[in-house]
Amino acid sequence: MTFGSIPQNSGLTRPITIVAPLGCLANPIFPAPVIARFTPGNALADTVMKALSQAAPRQVSAGIGNLRVIAFSGSADARPWVHMEILEGSYGGRSGLDGMDAVDTLFANTRNNPIEDIESHLPLRVERYELRHDVVTPGQWRGGIGSVREFTYLVDGGFSIEGDGHKYGPWGFAGGADGKPSELYQVNAAGQATALPSKVPYRRARAGDRLVCLGPSGGGYGDPFQRSAEAVLDDVLDGLLSPANAAEQYGVAITDGRIDVAATARLRERRAAVE
Question: Which pLDDT band, with edges at 50, 70 and 90, does 77 fall under?
Answer without folding.
Answer: confident
